[in-house]
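Dear colleagues,

For the upcoming journal club I promised to circulate an example of a predicted protein-ligand complex. I picked one with histidyl-adenosine monophosphate because it came up in last month's discussion. The inputs are reproduced below in full, followed by the predicted structure.
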Amino acid sequence: MLINRPRGTNDILPGDVEKWQFVEETAREVCRRFNVKEIRTPIFEHTELFQRGVGDTTDIVQKEMYTFEDRGERSLTLRPEGTAAVTRAYTENKLYAQPAPQKLFYIGPMFRYERPQSGRYRQFHQFGVEVLGVNDPAVDAEVIALAMTFLHEIGLQDLSLEINSVGSPDSRTHYRDILREHLTPVKEQLCKDCQTRFDKNPMRILDCKVDTCKGLTQDAPYMLDHLVEADAEHFKALCEYLDSFGVEYKVNPRMVRGLDYYTQTAFEIIESGSTIGGGGRYNGLVEQVGGPESPGIGFAFGVERCLIALNTQQVTPDIPTGLDVFLVSLGEAAQKATSALLQEFRISGLVADKDYLGKSMKAQMKAADRQQARRVVILGDDELAQGVANVKDMATGEQSTVGIDELTSHLLSTLE
Ligand code: HAM
């Protein structure tokens, strides 16, 4: 019996993988220009890292982690996101002792046990950026500008950038009381989860997907209207920087992100009603995972969601496909000679291939066409004896005879 891939995972096949590579290469290139360096952390971490980092009351920790015990009876978890892992690596490798800010990016798989649907998978991929060590709102704006530059460079338009401030712990303590006071009369009507959230983390109630809870929180006061002065100033400065960068945004005072570590700045980028990425500041997280006090800000995009958005917006990235050269051979001696020629082509930088199944000339030409070869080199036993080959330009149909010794340089100079 055939064994299928696990639910919520995807095979990324040739034909699609080129789009992935395009998105990933664009991410790397934009990061290079913003002087953001790559970091690679393990796919699994100690479970406690996410419990502490992402937060015990979050859906991720409560319901969505792939947690297992290894043979040494340690509890490990496939990473559900990258931020906690990057702050762990930042702390463990003492990157805080190096000049600030440390600007880091990652691209890789993440794992969440969610109900699979379009744009929601159990193994998905994120491109994320984390900037650690500086609490300047100019950095918040730069990180957001990087995110928007990436999206524009992969070809997306008409995106909605929403920003908010979820406050520092000072603002939150104060706001939690205001929120509890507002919700006390309707506490019993909230869903069970929200009744627990009421005591533990009432802000999470604002993010509840249950309709009754949504209705009951409709008129709740905004965090944004109850920020302590330093937070209000940070938010105001962020808006001014974004204005000066020419980055368009909408303030959404209802936005709460699904992870516990955010402080002050929070943002999301939405395309056709679906969130393709989000992030924010997390000034307490490094301490939370055992490091020194160290501010941070970052974001992550779902690569799958970026690709879905490209489809929706009918953007076809300009991805070079097809071969430079397809080698067609006729006769036994010619067939043998093609292997060495092919190697010579490939070493010189040409994308080259040939038929391996001993097909007829017509079938080989068809294969060349199917693989979008720009040139076909036809080599028969007679030509081989004369030291020449025929080169066909597949776009114009023109044919020329070229000496075998000059083939590579001829192809290189005509295939610019
Ligand atoms: P997040 O909002 O949980 O944030 O995830 C970021 C993005 O990952 C989402 O906007 C979405 O595009 C994608 N994503 C999340 N879950 C799934 C899924 N099950 N299937 C497909 N795509 C998914 C974070 O993960 C934070 N670490 C972002 C961050 C970085 N904040 C600060 N720095």
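Two points we might discuss: The chain has a mean pLDDT of 95. The two ends are 50 Å apart (CA to CA).

See you all on Thursday,
B. R.
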